[in-house]
Write a structure and sequence with these properties.
The complex is a heterodimer. Chain A is 0% helix and 46% strand. Chain A has strands spanning 5-7, 10-13, 19-24, 31-37, 44-50, 65-69, 75-79, 88-95, 104-105, 109-113. In chain A, strands 2, 4, 5, 8, 9 and 10 form a six-stranded mixed β-sheet that branches. In chain A, strand 8 (88-95) and strand 9 (104-105) form a beta hairpin. Chain B is mainly β. Helix content of chain B is 0%, strand content 57%. Chain B has strands at residues 5-7, 10-14, 19-24, 32-37, 43-49, 55-58, 61-66, 71-76, 85-93, 96-99, 103-108. Chain B is globular and about 40 Å long. In chain B, 33% of the residues are buried. Classes of the chains: A mainly beta, B mainly beta.
Chain lengths: 114, 109
């Protein structure tokens, strides 16, 4: 079946512009994560959606970052007034449940802020 | 920080040798997972070890877990050039999955 799909795969934007990154999780997966990965670094947790529960937003680095998950499926990560330090690969992952299921990752969106 | 610490940060070995990488957390371990990443893009799940397990095998992979030390190790036996990648541990702590800092493994043919 289809895996996790992220779009766009690459995005170049000017400093100060807003960007929207999209994630289509695997159908039926209740958990959805967003992570950020800078070049050669580990994964930084951003936000976590689980079913109909309130999302865990504890990893969002500033109020310029926000995310939604509509209808328990597609998720959008929005970055307002982008800064150069926002340049990174943004990874989305989904899983069947909370604790013991493996995450299935998309191929990420590489964001470059010039 | 809830992020796991992995060591070594980088490891280069000859093809055919075994590779061992370690992971530790400051928070309690709850269902520890290991992932592999090629080319800085999406990660692929390798193996999950539950909190009540001490050792688990999958093909050439062997994972151990010590919950008292809040640590885990991943052993890849009989390494191949195709094993060259970054490897990350991940812990479901504080109600979400947080990843370690990663080990960059290079297999020399």
């Amino acid at each position: 079946g289809a895996g996790v799909s992220q779009s766009p795969s690459n995005k170049v934007t000017e400093k100060g512009k807003d960007v929207e990154l999209r994630c289509d999780p695997i159908s039926g997966h209740t958990a959805l994560y967003w992570y950020r990965q800078s070049l050669g670094q580990g994964l930084e947790f951003l936000i976590y959606f689980q079913g109909n529960s309130a999302p865990d937003k504890s990893g969002l680095p500033s109020d310029r970052f926000s995310a939604e998950r509509t209808g328990g499926s597609v998720s959008t990560l929005t970055i307002q007034r982008t800064q150069q330090e926002d340049s990174a690969v943004y990874l989305c992952a989904s899983s069947l449940d909370r604790v013991a299921s493996p995450l299935h990752f998309g191929n990420g969106t590489r964001l470059t802020v010039t | 920080s809830q992020q796991g610490e992995e060591d070594p940060q980088a490891l280069s070995i000859q093809e055919g040798e075994n590779a061992t990488m370690n992971c530790s957390y400051k928070t309690s371990i709850n269902n520890l997972q290991w992932y592999r990443q090629n080319s800085g893009r999406g990660l692929v799940h390798l193996i999950l070890i539950r909190s009540n397990e001490r050792e688990k095998h999958s093909g050439r992979l062997r994972v151990t877990l010590d919950t008292s030390k809040k640590s885990s190790s991943l052993l890849i036996t009989a390494s191949r050039a195709a094993d060259t990648a970054s490897y990350f541990c991940a812990n479901f702590g504080n109600e979400k999955l947080t990843f370690g800092t990663g080990t960059r493994l290079t297999i020399i043919p």
